[in-house]
Amino acid sequence: MRRHDVVVVGAGLAGQRAALAAAQAGRDVAIVSKLHPLRSHSGAAQGGINAAVGAEDSVDTHIYDTVKGSDYLGDQDAIEFFCREAGSIVVEMEHFGTIFSRGADGSLARRAFGGAGFPRTIYAADRTGLALLQAIYEHLGTETITVYEEWDLVQLIVRDGRAQGIVAFDRKHGTFEEIAARAIVIATGPAGRVYSRTTNAHSCTGDGLAIAYRAGAWLKDMEFVQFHPTALLESGILITEGARGEGGILKNVNGDRFMTKYAPHVMDLASRDVVSRAITTEIAEGRGFPGEYVHLELMHLGKEKIESRLQEICDFSRNFAGVDPVNEPIPVRPGQHYMMGGISTNIRGETSIAGLYSAGEAACVSIHGANRLGGNSLLETLVFGKQAGIAAAEYALTAALPSITADDLSAAERPVRAMQAKKDGVEPLALRSEIQSVMDRWVGIYRNPADLGKAWDALADLRRRSSELRIIDQTSSYSVNLGEALETQHILDLAEVIVAGAIARTESRGAHARVDFPKRDDANWMKHTIAAFRPEGPQLSYAPVAYTRWDPKERVY
Amino acid sequence: MVETVHATFQVYRFTPGVDSSPRYVSYEFDLPPHTPVLSALLKIRQEIDPTLAMRYSCRSSICGSCAMVINSKSRLACQTQIGPELARHGRIVIDPMRNQPVARDLIVDQKPFWHDYERIDPHLIADPAHPMPEGQPNPMTPEQVDRFYETPRCIACGACYSACPAKEADPEFPGPMALAKLYRFVVDPRDGATRERLLKIQPGGLWTCLRCHLCTAACPKDVRPSERIRDLKELAIAAQGVTEAGSRHAVAFKENIYERGLLNEGKLARQTLGLAGTAAQLPQAMRILRKKPELLKSPPKIEGLAEVRKIYEMLEDEERSG
Ligand SMILES: Cc1cc2nc3c(=O)[nH]c(=O)nc-3n(C[C@H](O)[C@H](O)[C@H](O)COP(=O)(O)OP(=O)(O)OC[C@H]3O[C@@H](n4cnc5c(N)ncnc54)[C@H](O)[C@@H]3O)c2cc1C
Ligand code: FES
Known about the structure:
The complex is a heterodimer.
Chain A: E1 2-9, H1 13-24, E2 29-33, E3 49-50, H2 59-69, H3 76-96, E4 110-111, E5 121-122, H4 128-140, E6 146-149, E7 151-159, E8 162-170, E9 175-186, H5 207-214, E10 219-220, E11 225-232, H6 242-245, E12 249-251, H7 259-262, H8 272-284, E13 294-297, H9 303-309, H10 311-321, E14 330-339, E15 342-344, E16 356-358, E17 363-364, H11 376-398, H12 406-421, H13 428-442, E18 446-447, H14 449-466, H15 480-504, E19 513-514, H16 522-525, E20 527-532, E21 539-544
Parallel strand pairs in A: 1-2, 1-9, 2-6, 9-16, 15-17, 18-19
Antiparallel strand pairs in A: 3-5, 4-5, 7-8, 8-9, 10-15, 10-20, 11-14, 12-13, 13-14, 20-21
Chain B: E1 5-13, E2 23-31, H1 37-48, E3 67-70, E4 73-76, H2 82-89, E5 92-95, E6 102-104, E7 107-108, H3 111-119, H4 142-146, H5 159-163, H6 165-169, H7 176-186, H8 194-206, H9 214-218, H10 225-240, H11 245-260, H12 265-280, H13 282-291, H14 305-320
Parallel strand pairs in B: 1-5
Antiparallel strand pairs in B: 1-2, 3-4, 3-5, 6-7
Bound molecules: flavin-adenine dinucleotide (FAD) and FE2/S2 (inorganic) cluster.
């Protein structure tokens, strides 16, 4: 049987950083990833990574900005640790070979990002995620690590109160395989595909979250979902703030520059949540274009400026929307962008299950609280990926040999084979689309009890229908269809947790905007939502937020 | 209303070990002309046949999953719109990438590709003479960053590898992606193994490149592998001198043209392969000479030789001034 000291599931920035730390600690490490590591969604991040390294900046302001940005739901001890690690973790990535953009004096170049007191976002042109992903992958190549590539995590084996191993599906051979592990790190990344309107890749289906949740781990703050105001119509591809930073303006169907109404001073450059809500209101009140979108106009900037300063946006608009921003407006609308919530961990990446660790977007430490700041999530993957790797390595050193049995394998495989044996039933992609449209429609930026109730009922109905899921593809090799069936089940679990948390939280904080409770309610709701799996649905409880130095204030920018 | 076009797709289907031979299956839709090929394939998967096997993830040309051959060209499905393809070819024929064995339908086994990538030691090799500054980033000027050109944009999709005829002819050739990656390390001021890298890659590595530039045409990220291979050749000559058959060929070529403005094939072979090497090629040479006896004569000097030499001088001037 396959056995390793530490098994890291997921090979984005968080997973690879965890694997590196565990290998450097001398453990026998394996990575399991459904994509080749270099195809992970971390590569799509463009903007940059935060670290207060400039002479005029300070770690304390980074901490303060993050606490405030989190709308006081972030754990302040964790945020302090996080910001203090930032400088050294970025330098480490530079030493591994990351090709960052540079200032004339040879230092790391920095740009300004929303919600930050200083320009502290270090970047590599418009491809920071790719630059970091390449560098960590190259560096990891110098360590001895087993990589199970194109293997999907299917189940976590938890027995006697600790994680013992995993069952995975080998896409190439079409077989289910088990791997025993003394410690496991879940770094499976985003879950944006709970929505169809999302900036996330097709593969971002929150597998690790759902599987850990089913195995008994707690999920934290799942109702906090960040929307980006300008996702391209149809594909949902991100159109960065840069477009508005250069002077782009938003217009509704009547040709009105509507941001003058919502943010008279900063207008189109207001913070993400403000702009997202404004666009949503325009569409809801009938001033969107048919098909529910608004226009982002760049034409007035002129061909030269558009093509030189906003090259990426030009390419995206031309390639994916068939629109040339030099001559026409870009059709945009808000799209899901980031999940603040995830598997509940502390700063060592420890979860509620012994031997099980998590890091990256799959985890919730919590440093983002109710709202993440741009540039903090790349940093999170590396800071806490490293911590989780160190902690898992330590645990593995003294942990007893894991015990897994043949029954573990068949218990994971049987239901999937049963879906394959069905003669008719529900197509995974069809069910997935239905889950996504429920979430798009009723669990978006503004939430009200009536819509959330509709979503809850619709999900209950889809839950019943999910028992009819059927995998048509019988070929053993590369059954994409089988993978989609698994992913659809994960999305359904997570959608339920998001809706349950959103119904319960009767306040507005950060990304969670309740129409019927428009104010933040610190007296009753300054606490983390914890969801635990129960066969009848998520069971919610609450946990305190950690404070150190900052008292909650109203969040105004 | 968005206008649509009628699109016919012919998609390669093959499961080794199950199907006796590959076949093409046709699918037809009316779709807006800006629809990416990837979206059309996903529509086929969702509405007609969920067994169509393919790789995809980001749908925004950044993960490198969806490279395939579309109307005979290696490219990303998510970056190719159906409108222009239909206008040019009338239909859209989709095949898996070349130079890699088919695993199923549009999925190829990328092992050879990754193996070739590994061969160039794709990681920084520390320079013992210049340790990394403790707790500080290495300084690097914007000009040094510019020297990477677009090589850091590589998403390892394999389109260049699929398009490369040299790779097809010579399995030992590492292919454009690996060489562009090699270039990225060779010009990195933090790397301490530039010379070793260049020496290691020379036999069979660099000089197999045919300079056909098909890799550069295929690259969805403008990495321009063929231009970087050209740069590597120059760097290799500078590092090692003219010792390899490939580099001798390049230099001989240059001298030939300077002398007469035309190639002297016989002299070129002697200079490239040496006398013994040329002798080994004699049987083939005799066959060629029987057909083209004029090759035996030294070519005449061409009329505009003075101008040819002026080009050389200009290039040398340009090189000196950087
Ligand atoms: C368009 C876009 C732009 C962004 N820009 C920025 C930015 O500028 N700055 C910033 O700080 N943040 C940015 N973010 C957020 C940031 O990129 C992500 O939060 C971060 O990269 C997530 O990294 P990760 O390692 O957790 O996950 P990922 O990189 O997504 O990796 C997940 C890994 O898990 C694997 N996996 C998933 N499911 C399974 C399974 N079932 N079995 C096995 N393996 C599995 C995948 O193969 C993959 O290797 C952006 C996000 C998006 C979508
Ligand atoms: S799907 Fe990622 S490159 Fe095409």
